Amino acid sequence: MAAKKGFRQTIFWIIAFVLFIAIYNNIKSSDKEKDIPYSEFKQALSSKQISKVKIGSDIIQGEMTEPDGKTQRFATIPVPDAELVKDLEKYDVKEYSAAPDRSWIGSILLNVGWIFLFIAIWYFIFVRQVRGGGKDAMDFGKSRAQMQDLKKNKVRFKDVAGCDETKEELKDIVDYLKNPKKYQQLGGILPKGVLLFGPPGTGKTLLAKAVAGEAGVPFFTSSGSEFVEMFVGVGASRVRDLFARAKKSAPAIVFIDELDAVGRSRFAGIGGGHDEREQTLNQILVELDGFESKQGIILIGATNRPDVLDNALLRPGRFDRRISVPVPDVKGRLEVLKVHAKKIKLSPDADLSIVAKNTPGCAGADLANIVNEAAILAAKKNKKSVEQDDLDEAIEKMIAGPQRKSRVMSEKTKKVIAYHEGGHALIAKLIPGCDPVHKITIVSRGDALGYTLQMPEEDKYLVSKNDILNTLCVMLGGRAAEEITFGEITTGAQNDISRVSAYAHKMVLEYGMSDKVGPMSLQKDQHEVFLGRDIVNQPGYSEATAQIVDEEIKNIVHNSYDRAKKLLAENMDLLDKLADRLIARETVSGEELDDMMKGLDPDVEMARRKAAAEERRKAEKAAAEAKKKAAAEAKAAADAAKAAAEKADAEKIQPTQDAGQNTENKAENATVVENPIPEQSKPETKDKE
Q1: pLDDT at 504 over 90
Q2: In a shared domain, residues 254 and 382
Q3: Rounded distance, CA 75 to CA 31, Å?
Q4: Which CATH number fits the domain that encloses residue 362?
Q5: If both were cysteines, with which of 133, 337, 432, 666 could 352 make a disulfide (CB 3.0 to 4.6 Å apart)?
Q6: Weakest-pLDDT range from 45-49, 231-235, 429-433
Q7: Which of 78, 41, 75, 79 is nearest to 61 (CA)?
């Protein structure tokens, strides 16, 4: 197809070039030639000024000598003249000839050729723009889904980590595609649809590829946006074509990514609905009901928003299985990191379990990005392998953005930021139960002028009221430190205040953690306006209740702020030390903060820890070398014992062979002695033997 396309383009440009040259030459020659009447031509001929003549059916061309001696080309329209040849000979014209009659070719090229040229240019410029992906303009209704090559699809379940329960659910689909009779003989039917839903980056598309790779069946992949075009009816036509192709290749898997682009709830309220998307959805519903399970076609859909999908699409009989693909826990994150770490050169000292522990809430795509960023950072530093500090830097880069060491700040600004971040870190250390402080820094990252990094020790699935109040107090610690130290506040706490307000709002309206409101959920479900459920979001409670809600939210925030100020005021000397160290070093680790809380010198303790770590590393290295040496000695001893055993076996076999050889010699000698026995005695001797 590509060769044919290139050939047509080459022919087009050749024709265009030839037409251009012909038109150019015609214009150029017409500019140099002098048009003269036939009478003037006859006069010049009689004056012997004509030196060359070329006679055509409708034109005579040639060369003539001007009075000033210059040669001029001429052209004239002939009239019937039977004596012309005789006159040419009479007046000594040196060269005259007849031109072939090709005037009709030039006339066609000059009069019609430019029309064809215009059509060709219009075709290649405009018509080809209408074509999409090499398809003709009338092929809009054809599906854009691509069938993956089974030989190239090498994704298997072992390549997908961190979602063991999800893989177990999908293994049933694979087993059914491989052994359908095992289920059909018991009356079981193949699920028509499987919906994979979960946060972005959890591996929904990868799971669908793994299902196709494990089952070894054709895999058609498409996106929900490919069904929606500017022409009404195109999406429904593409759905029909997609399922028709799948039926021809059955058993097969049809995968539609971002199903919410075409499967949103249908809407007939104010403003009307989206006709094209709704027709496409209707066609998907028909196809799911239309093909039988025995055909072996499974539709796998993936979406991040299952809440906006149409109810008719989610009912049993269409999407029979709805499988959640959650964010992995710490064990799953470690498995995901191990899968991606195989692609890079990882240092033996790097501990992926620390990375898994420090990345709660990260999806598989986030973890893959962290590993890749760590490899890039190590390469920029010309390292031979990816080390632990590269992984830690990659985590911080993903959370807060790249470092901005080039940002110039005044000493006053640095001091304010140091006290602000010190307030966060100190409150987190003073309140029991808070997540451990991993790092405090005043180095800018992204939009943040500084940040305090807390790493939870474990994944939390339930959060108590006390935990939330502690978190609010830590968030307000920065603003409290500014007010206590400088007597004024800055805009640096804007993000902290926004998050605190959101937490307090949820505590009262959603979590039922308010004493006055009680265990009530007053937060109305939020829906998009286009779904037709709400035009204006109105609270589902009275003005009196709204006033109580406002008072409770205010009390929660103010109480947390007062608590933070009280804790910092009681530990002001520690806050000053921490801020001074941040200004001097820009970054303080959680271990250094622990030493300061204990009244120890962080520098001395850090040197002691480094020395202990170095001694431990040397001891581990020596132990590894001793273990390696012992293994080598054991192997050498085993080899020596094996060689000795083989030698002993060989010595035992040699006397046996000698004895056998002597027996054979004796038998030969006996045979020689028995040779004189008469012929009739030989059978008897054989029988005795």
Answers
A1: yes
A2: no
A3: 11
A4: 1.10.8.60
A5: 337
A6: 231-235
A7: 75
For residues 350 and 275, membership in a common domain is answered with no
Show the DSSP H helices in 228-363 as ranges.
234-248, 275-290, 311-314, 330-341, 352-357
Count up the domains in the chain and report the number. 5
Within-domain flag for 454: yes
Is pLDDT above 90 for 461? no
- Give the model's pLDDT for residue 290: 64
350 and 320 in a common domain: no
Spatial separation of the C-alpha atoms in residues 260 and 659, rounded to whole Å: 89
337 and 426 in a single domain? The answer is: no
Strand-pairing partners, residue 322, are: 195
Residue with tokens 């999806």: 363
- Can you read off the two tokens belonging to residue 554? 């205010």
Region of poorest pLDDT, from 272-281, 332-341, 507-516, 617-626: 272-281
Laid out side by side, the sheet with 252-257 consists of 146-148, 219-223, 252-257, 297-303, 193-197, 321-324
Question: At 484, which amino acid appears?
Answer: I
621, 637, 653 — which closes off a domain? 637
Per the CB < 8 A criterion, the answer to whether 196 and 208 are in contact is yes
Residue 685 lies in a domain: no
pLDDT one-digit tens code per residue, 607-634: 888 888 888 888 888 888 888 888 888 8
The torsion angles phi and psi of 140, rounded to 5 degrees, stand at -60, -30
Is 532 part of a structural domain of the chain? no
As a whole number of angstroms, the distance between CA 508 and CA 555 comes to: 11
d(CA 322, CA 309): 12
Q: In terms of domains, do 179 and 72 share one?
A: no
Q: What is the pLDDT of residues 571-610, one digit of tens each?
A: 999 999 999 999 999 899 989 999 998 888 888 888 888 8
Beta bridge partners of 221: 146, 255
Angle between helices 494-509 and 465-475 (to 10 degrees): 160
**61 φ, ψ (degrees, to nearest 5):** -120, 155
Q: Name 652's bridge partners.
A: none
Q: CA 289, 295, 296: angle at the middle one, nearest 5? A: 100
Q: Are residues 435 and 346 in the same domain?
A: no
Tokens (6 digits) for 508: 């009262």
Residues annotated as part of the active site: 421
Q: What is the CATH number of the domain that holds 571?
A: 1.20.58.760
Strands 50-55 and 95-98: parallel
The structure tokens listed for 352 are 């992926």
Q: Is 60 helix (H, G, I), strand (E, B) or coil?
A: strand
CATH number, domain containing residue 240: 3.40.50.300
Q: Is residue 124 part of a domain?
A: no
Q: How does pLDDT run across 649-669, given as a tens digit for each residue?
A: 777 665 555 555 554 444 444
Q: Which of 117, 136, 159 is the last residue of a domain?
A: 117
Largest CA distance in the chain: 145
pLDDT for residue 532 is more than 50: no
Q: List the domain range (segments joined by +) for residue 623.
A: 610-637
> Which one-letter amino acid corresponds to residue 60?
I
